[in-house]
UniProtKB/TrEMBL annotation:
Gene Ontology molecular function: any one: protein N-terminal-serine acetyltransferase activity
Gene expressing this chain: ydaF_1
The protein's name in its UniProt record: Ribosomal N-acetyltransferase YdaF
Any one GO cellular component localisation term in the record: cytoplasm
SUPFAM superfamilies: Acyl-CoA N-acyltransferases (Nat)
Signal peptide: none
Superkingdom as given in the UniProt entry: Bacteria
Pfam families named among the record's database cross-references: Acetyltransf_3
PANTHER family registered for this protein in UniProt: RIBOSOMAL-PROTEIN-SERINE ACETYLTRANSFERASE (PTHR43441:SF11)
Start and end residues of each N-acetyltransferase domain: 19-173
């Protein structure tokens, strides 16, 4: 990988870097991420960041930057938190030039570990488009189980997304931690 990987909460001042990264990967990302087509300016990205700064994932989306040294490589977030089910979803995207470096797998590993360490969450879910094999490999590498399939309507009556739903339970994650050499394989 080379460099230092870190996650930090996205802030308003990161909007310019985030938009530049999004623009450099727009053609690729629009295939997989619904909101990308609506982010047409740095102002749109600033609005997206502002709208996704919830204090806790049970109260909305919590958005983090994936940073390689001082360069923004992508974003990862916690969303769809459900306090009754004690569950949360993880979403992510990575700039096209940062793909294949293991950054998203490592970022998910870090964030999931933190979720289970500091909260009462019992379940973490990752939803991936059925046709996005690189994205599917991330939960598979991390030991997630395929737990279901969903269809999500696209905006403007443009069909639907076929999603695979992967799940990880707290007790399974703690068992997985005892075998750290498995992370990143496959």
């Amino acid at each position: 990988m080379g460099g230092t990987l870190r996650l930090s909460r996205m802030k308003n001042e990161h909007a310019s870097q985030a938009f530049e990264l999004l623009e450099s990967s727009r053609g690729y990302l629009e295939k997989w991420i619904p909101w990308v087509k609506n982010a047409r300016s740095e102002g749109d990205m600033l609005e997206f960041i502002r709208e996704n700064q919830a204090p806790h994932w049970y109260q909305g989306r919590v958005l983090f930057g994936i940073w390689l040294d001082s360069e923004l490589a992508g974003m990862i977030d916690l969303h769809n938190g459900d306090a009754n089910w004690r569950s949360v979803d993880i979403g992510y995207w990575i700039g096209e030039r940062f793909q294949g470096m293991g950054l998203v797998t490592k970022s998910c590993d870090m964030l999931i570990g933190r979720v289970f360490e500091v909260s009462d969450a019992q379940h973490v879910f990752i939803r991936c488009d059925r046709n996005n094999a690189p994205s599917q490999r991330i939960p598979e590498r991390l030991g997630f189980a395929l737990v279901g399939q969903e269809k999500e309507e696209k905006e403007e009556g443009d069909g639907h997304w076929d999603l695979l739903v992967y799940g990880m339970r707290r007790h399974r994650w703690s068992m997985r931690i005892s075998e750290p050499d498995k992370v990143g394989r496959k």
